[in-house]
Write a structure and sequence with these properties.
Blueprint lengths: L3 E5 L4 H12 L3 E6 L10 E5 L5 H8 L4 E4 L7 H22 L2 E6 L10 E2 L10 H18 L5 E5 L3 E2 L10 H10 L1 E5 L5 E2 L2 E2 L3 H10 L4 E4 L6 E2 H12 L4 E5 L1 H7 L4 H7 L3 H4 L3 E2 L2 H6 L8 H18 L1
Parallel strand pairs: 1-2, 1-4, 2-3, 4-5, 5-7, 6-15, 7-12, 8-11, 9-14
Antiparallel strand pairs: 10-13
Length: 314
């Protein structure tokens, strides 16, 4: 079997980690972006591709054992509606011609609001604009898989965090505020439970999924769901400081969205933070018992250290 893996969206935060990890595992990696990536690791070749070109996508995927979709389109519903469906159609066609396994790095938007645990069998009940787009993509990919046109994995992650991740809900409005203002800002209702995926756990799981026989929907390794107050307690323990907690609720997000475009786009997804969000990842741990779920104590400490260095350098 070919040891080539094509990574679409290689220059993004997760893409960079995935490319570097695959290179360490001695894969031949095609790092692909709209602009030419700049990886220097052994076994990595850099490719600039127009995602609108079927010919270019087919060529860059040819001969691949797997094709990872780690592309990050602008976080705007209208762009998602216009660009995501035809892009996934083109990637499915490229994988069908190459025989490479499609691995789609996904979020949980397609589920909509779930009462109880989010599991792989949860219904796709999306109601938001972005959620409906993700639902359409999941259905496209699983249909192609079930029809035998391709082999595919939908690898879902909870909200993720970690070193280098600045735009997460536990990014700049979390770690930066802790360092500079002794304040921990919780997005949504701090009484509700929520869990997060540590970004450095993602490449390990994706590689295992790519090289296994598994197909279908699966959740990536993720820590337990706890309340915002528990995250506050953890950060107080790590910093040795008494932290003031603030929360950015739905009403405030709506108001600030008048002035801050990204909050306008996040507003429709606030249900995830105003209600319990309990993402279950037992299935993948059962499938790959050696996979590690980084404890929040460890992941938050590494992320805090990264932010402290960033603040000192700025």
């Amino acid at each position: 079997m070919s040891k080539i893996i094509t990574v679409l969206g290689a220059s993004g935060n997760v893409g960079k980690l995935v490319v570097s990890y695959l290179a360490e595992k001695a894969y031949n990696v095609r790092a692909v972006g709209r602009k030419l990536p700049k990886f220097t690791e052994n076994g990595v070749t850099n490719h600039a591709v127009s995602y609108e070109s079927q010919e270019e996508l087919t060529k860059v995927c040819d001969g691949s054992q797997a094709v990872f979709i780690l592309i990050g389109l602008e976080y705007k519903a209208s762009i998602w509606q216009e660009e995501w469906p035809p892009l996934v159609d083109r990637i499915i066609e490229a994988c069908e011609k190459s025989g490479g396994k499609l691995v789609f790095f996904d979020n949980v938007y397609s589920y909509g609001l779930v009462e109880g645990k989010m599991v792989e069998e949860s219904s796709l009940n999306a109601q938001t604009k972005k959620g409906l787009v993700r639902k359409e993509l999941v259905e496209k990919i699983l249909k192609a898989n079930n029809e035998g046109r391709i082999k595919a994995v939908i690898a879902k992650s909870a909200d993720f965090y970690g070193p280098g991740i600045t735009t997460s809900v536990v990014g700049d409005r979390f770690f930066d505020l802790i360092i500079n203002k002794d304040t921990v800002e919780i997005f949504g209702n701090p009484k509700k439970i929520h869990n997060y995926t540590y970004v450095n756990d993602i490449p390990v799981a994706l590689e295992k999924l790519a090289s296994s026989d598994f197909t279908g929907n699966i959740h990536l390794p993720t820590g337990p769901a706890v309340t915002g107050y528990k995250y506050q307690e953890l950060m107080e323990k790590l910093t040795g400081k008494k932290l003031k907690i603030t929360n950015l609720g739905q009403n405030m997000a709506w108001f600030l969205g008048i002035f801050i475009p990204i909050l306008r786009e996040l507003y429709e997804m606030m249900y995830q933070n105003e209600n319990d969000y309990n993402f279950d990842s037992h299935k993948i741990i059962k499938l790959f018992p050696d996979l590690k779920v980084t404890p929040y104590e460890e992941g938050f400490k590494e992320t805090l250290d990264w932010w402290e260095k960033k603040v000192k350098q700025s």
